[in-house]
Design brief:
By secondary structure, this protein is mainly alpha-helical. It has six helices and no strands.
């Protein structure tokens, strides 16, 4: 049942993104940033944590989950380190994901020959 919950919640988040792409004039970059900001905002008001407990990876893998992860890390760091936690918490909580993105992006650039846009 956990897989079904993750699939439904993750799928609904993706459906919202697809609707925004199809029905608005927003660029994909703005939609992606909006999803991260939405994850932060939902975590700040206490709505995203219950969704993560319910759906697991279906809520943490999409970009809203990245925003949630950053916000949760900042909240934890502020509780532990005070004001300086605002600057360190986001990087500490998201270090593995950011490191993987940089590594695999570099690996893809080495393996495949980039082509300029025409």
């Amino acid at each position: 049942m956990d897989f079904v919950k993750a699939f439904v919640v993750g799928g609904l988040i993706c459906v919202v993104g697809q609707i925004l792409i199809d029905k608005t004039m927003l660029t994909p970059a703005r939609i992606l940033v909006s999803f991260v900001v939405a994850g932060v905002a939902l975590q700040l008001v206490g709505l995203y944590e219950p969704l993560v407990k319910f759906a697991g990876a279906g809520a943490t893998i999409p970009l809203t989950g990245f925003g949630y992860n950053i916000c949760k890390g900042m909240q934890t760091a502020v509780n532990e380190n005070g004001f300086m936690g605002i600057f360190t918490g986001a990087f500490t909580s998201a270090a593995a994901g950011l490191g993987a993105a940089v590594f695999f992006g570099f690996l893809a650039a080495v393996i495949f020959k980039p082509k300029p846009k025409s």
